[in-house]
Amino acid sequence: LINYADTLGGIPVGLLSIVKTGYHKIEVSSDEVFYTNLAFRSGVRKFYTMLHAGFKPDKSLNAGDSSVWTFGYGLGTARKISKKIFLNIDASAQHVNKGSFTNALSLLNKIHVGVDFQLAKGLSLYTGATLNGYLTNNDYKEYPTLFTDFKPNVFYDETVGTNNNLKMWVGGKVALRFL
After folding, report:
1. The whole model's pTM is what?
2. Cα–Cα distances in Å, from 112 out to 39, 52, 55, 104, 143?
3. What is the DSSP string of the chain?
Protein backbone atom coordinates (compact mmCIF):
# COMPACT_ATOMS: atom_id res chain seq x y z
CA LEU A 1 0.00 0.00 0.00
CA ILE A 2 2.77 2.45 0.89
CA ASN A 3 6.07 2.47 -0.97
CA TYR A 4 9.07 4.15 0.63
CA ALA A 5 12.49 4.24 -1.03
CA ASP A 6 15.64 6.35 -0.89
CA THR A 7 16.17 6.19 -4.66
CA LEU A 8 14.35 4.39 -7.42
CA GLY A 9 15.25 3.57 -11.00
CA GLY A 10 11.81 2.33 -12.00
CA ILE A 11 8.21 3.24 -11.31
CA PRO A 12 6.71 2.90 -7.82
CA VAL A 13 3.30 1.25 -7.64
CA GLY A 14 1.20 1.67 -4.52
CA LEU A 15 -1.50 3.75 -2.91
CA LEU A 16 1.14 6.24 -1.76
CA SER A 17 4.72 6.31 -3.02
CA ILE A 18 7.42 8.27 -1.25
CA VAL A 19 10.84 8.32 -2.90
CA LYS A 20 13.33 10.41 -0.92
CA THR A 21 15.17 11.61 -4.06
CA GLY A 22 12.00 11.53 -6.19
CA TYR A 23 9.16 13.88 -7.11
CA HIS A 24 7.43 15.81 -4.31
CA LYS A 25 5.10 18.76 -4.78
CA ILE A 26 2.70 20.62 -2.55
CA GLU A 27 0.14 22.35 -4.74
CA VAL A 28 -2.24 25.22 -3.96
CA SER A 29 -4.73 25.59 -6.81
CA SER A 30 -8.04 26.97 -7.96
CA ASP A 31 -10.52 25.71 -10.57
CA GLU A 32 -14.08 26.39 -11.71
CA VAL A 33 -15.62 24.34 -8.88
CA PHE A 34 -13.29 24.67 -5.88
CA TYR A 35 -11.57 28.00 -5.41
CA THR A 36 -9.18 26.62 -2.78
CA ASN A 37 -7.45 23.27 -3.30
CA LEU A 38 -4.46 21.63 -1.65
CA ALA A 39 -2.71 18.58 -3.10
CA PHE A 40 0.36 16.52 -2.27
CA ARG A 41 2.11 14.71 -5.14
CA SER A 42 4.76 12.10 -4.46
CA GLY A 43 6.64 9.40 -6.37
CA VAL A 44 8.84 9.94 -9.42
CA ARG A 45 8.25 12.26 -12.40
CA LYS A 46 7.29 9.32 -14.61
CA PHE A 47 4.53 8.23 -12.19
CA TYR A 48 3.30 9.84 -8.99
CA THR A 49 0.32 9.57 -6.68
CA MET A 50 -1.69 12.53 -5.43
CA LEU A 51 -3.80 13.22 -2.33
CA HIS A 52 -6.21 16.11 -2.76
CA ALA A 53 -8.60 18.29 -0.72
CA GLY A 54 -10.69 21.29 -1.78
CA PHE A 55 -13.10 23.82 -0.30
CA LYS A 56 -15.65 26.35 -1.52
CA PRO A 57 -17.24 28.40 1.29
CA ASP A 58 -20.96 29.13 1.34
CA LYS A 59 -21.63 32.76 0.36
CA SER A 60 -25.29 32.77 1.35
CA LEU A 61 -26.81 33.69 4.70
CA ASN A 62 -28.81 30.44 4.91
CA ALA A 63 -29.08 28.66 8.22
CA GLY A 64 -26.83 25.63 8.42
CA ASP A 65 -23.55 24.97 6.70
CA SER A 66 -23.84 24.44 2.98
CA SER A 67 -20.16 24.93 2.17
CA VAL A 68 -18.88 22.48 -0.42
CA TRP A 69 -15.74 20.46 0.20
CA THR A 70 -13.97 17.53 -1.39
CA PHE A 71 -11.23 14.98 -0.90
CA GLY A 72 -9.72 12.60 -3.38
CA TYR A 73 -6.91 10.61 -4.92
CA GLY A 74 -5.13 10.69 -8.24
CA LEU A 75 -2.28 9.48 -10.42
CA GLY A 76 -0.10 11.41 -12.80
CA THR A 77 3.04 11.93 -14.81
CA ALA A 78 5.28 14.96 -15.39
CA ARG A 79 7.16 14.71 -18.68
CA LYS A 80 10.07 17.07 -19.34
CA ILE A 81 9.59 19.41 -22.34
CA SER A 82 12.58 21.67 -21.65
CA LYS A 83 14.88 22.52 -18.76
CA LYS A 84 12.14 24.47 -16.90
CA ILE A 85 8.90 23.27 -18.52
CA PHE A 86 7.05 20.02 -17.82
CA LEU A 87 3.88 18.55 -19.32
CA ASN A 88 1.61 17.17 -16.59
CA ILE A 89 -1.13 14.62 -17.19
CA ASP A 90 -3.23 13.67 -14.15
CA ALA A 91 -6.34 11.62 -13.50
CA SER A 92 -8.20 11.99 -10.21
CA ALA A 93 -11.42 11.08 -8.43
CA GLN A 94 -12.92 13.20 -5.65
CA HIS A 95 -15.88 12.75 -3.32
CA VAL A 96 -17.87 16.03 -3.21
CA ASN A 97 -19.63 16.97 0.03
CA LYS A 98 -22.08 19.65 1.12
CA GLY A 99 -21.90 20.71 4.79
CA SER A 100 -21.21 17.42 6.53
CA PHE A 101 -20.25 14.23 4.69
CA THR A 102 -22.52 13.49 1.71
CA ASN A 103 -23.51 9.86 2.13
CA ALA A 104 -24.44 9.29 -1.52
CA LEU A 105 -22.69 8.86 -4.86
CA SER A 106 -21.03 12.24 -5.44
CA LEU A 107 -17.94 11.54 -7.52
CA LEU A 108 -16.09 14.24 -9.45
CA ASN A 109 -13.61 12.69 -11.89
CA LYS A 110 -11.00 14.85 -13.61
CA ILE A 111 -8.36 14.50 -16.30
CA HIS A 112 -5.85 17.37 -16.21
CA VAL A 113 -3.46 18.25 -19.01
CA GLY A 114 -1.27 21.27 -18.46
CA VAL A 115 2.13 22.86 -18.29
CA ASP A 116 4.28 23.32 -15.18
CA PHE A 117 6.68 26.31 -15.49
CA GLN A 118 9.64 26.22 -13.07
CA LEU A 119 9.96 29.81 -11.77
CA ALA A 120 12.73 29.11 -9.28
CA LYS A 121 14.13 26.18 -7.34
CA GLY A 122 11.21 24.78 -5.37
CA LEU A 123 8.57 27.03 -6.99
CA SER A 124 6.54 26.54 -10.15
CA LEU A 125 3.39 27.82 -11.82
CA TYR A 126 0.95 25.36 -13.35
CA THR A 127 -1.92 26.02 -15.74
CA GLY A 128 -3.99 23.63 -17.75
CA ALA A 129 -7.32 22.32 -18.95
CA THR A 130 -9.51 19.70 -17.30
CA LEU A 131 -12.13 17.30 -18.57
CA ASN A 132 -14.63 16.81 -15.74
CA GLY A 133 -17.26 14.17 -15.12
CA TYR A 134 -19.59 14.49 -12.11
CA LEU A 135 -21.41 11.24 -11.29
CA THR A 136 -24.43 11.40 -8.95
CA ASN A 137 -27.47 9.34 -8.03
CA ASN A 138 -30.85 10.59 -9.31
CA ASP A 139 -32.64 9.63 -6.05
CA TYR A 140 -30.52 11.88 -3.79
CA LYS A 141 -31.75 15.50 -3.84
CA GLU A 142 -29.28 17.30 -1.53
CA TYR A 143 -26.29 17.60 -3.87
CA PRO A 144 -24.34 20.86 -3.71
CA THR A 145 -24.50 23.52 -6.39
CA LEU A 146 -21.10 23.16 -8.02
CA PHE A 147 -21.06 26.41 -10.00
CA THR A 148 -21.86 29.68 -8.23
CA ASP A 149 -19.85 32.44 -9.92
CA PHE A 150 -18.97 30.84 -13.24
CA LYS A 151 -20.89 28.13 -15.09
CA PRO A 152 -18.97 26.25 -17.76
CA ASN A 153 -20.71 24.68 -20.72
CA VAL A 154 -22.01 21.28 -19.55
CA PHE A 155 -21.87 19.41 -22.86
CA TYR A 156 -23.14 16.07 -21.51
CA ASP A 157 -25.95 15.60 -18.97
CA GLU A 158 -27.47 12.13 -19.21
CA THR A 159 -28.67 9.21 -17.14
CA VAL A 160 -26.12 6.39 -17.10
CA GLY A 161 -26.75 2.92 -15.77
CA THR A 162 -30.05 2.42 -14.03
CA ASN A 163 -30.34 5.56 -11.90
CA ASN A 164 -27.18 7.68 -12.08
CA ASN A 165 -26.52 11.01 -13.76
CA LEU A 166 -23.28 12.07 -15.45
CA LYS A 167 -22.52 15.71 -16.21
CA MET A 168 -19.40 16.55 -18.23
CA TRP A 169 -17.66 19.86 -18.96
CA VAL A 170 -14.27 21.30 -19.80
CA GLY A 171 -12.67 23.51 -17.16
CA GLY A 172 -9.32 24.87 -16.14
CA LYS A 173 -6.90 25.00 -13.25
CA VAL A 174 -4.14 27.32 -12.09
CA ALA A 175 -1.73 26.42 -9.32
CA LEU A 176 1.42 27.27 -7.45
CA ARG A 177 3.63 24.30 -6.63
CA PHE A 178 6.25 24.13 -3.91
CA LEU A 179 9.24 21.83 -3.17
Report:
1. 0.88
2. 14, 14, 19, 25, 24
3. -EEEES--SS---SSEEEETTSEEEEEEEEESS-SEEEEEEEEETTEEEEEEEEEE---S--SS---EEEEEEEEEEEEESSSSEEEEEEEEEEEEEESB---S-EEEEEEEEEEEEEEETTEEEEEEEEEEEEEEETT---PPP--SS----EEEEEEETTTEEEEEEEEEEEEEEE-
Flag the least confident range among 34-43, 141-150, 160-169.
141-150
Q: What string of DSSP letters covers 63-96?
A: SS---EEEEEEEEEEEEESSSSEEEEEEEEEEEE
Task: Report, as an integer, the average pLDDT of 50-57.
Answer: 92
